[in-house]
Structure formats: C-alpha cells, structure tokens
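Quarterly update, task 2.4: zinc ion-bound model.
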Amino acid sequence: MPDPLVAGLKMSIIEHFSSCGTLHYVVVKSKELTPKQILSVPCPTCGAATEEACELHTGAPRTEPHRDRKLSAAGAVERNQTKA
Ligand SMILES: [Zn+2]
C-alpha cells in the first residue's frame, strides 16, 4: 500500500530535479548568446538600458554583462524562437 510520506517525498524530489533541469538549461543557453543578443535586453541588475554595456557601481563599464542580464537575454531569445 502506498505510504503518503514516501509519495510526498518522491514528489518533492521530482520537483527539485525538474527545477534544476530548467536552471541548467537556461545557463547553457546563456553561454551561447552573442554580445548583441545580451545588449538587446536591459539589465535587471545595474539598470543598463538596451544597447548599453553593464556598469560597475563606479560608473565604469563592466567587461562582462551581469548574470541576470544573460538569463534575461536567453529568455528573450527563447521567446523569439518559439514565436517564429
Ligand atoms: Zn548589468
């Protein structure tokens, strides 16, 4: 007979793995982005507008865009591809 506790545990493990899978997928995707694609979205971290590079707190440009911006760009690219 099914044990409700075990069933609940199994469910939470499955949920855990599926959310990790999604995150991993987005991270892999964000590595394939071109700088142009990353600049096509505003940065949620430092507030850089589209077409503008990410900035440090001092106002100097960062060499790398913020991680959240890459994720945001990956999501935007994903949406465009689904639309097409
Ligand atoms: Zn930024």
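Highlight for this quarter: The longest helix spans residues 4-31.
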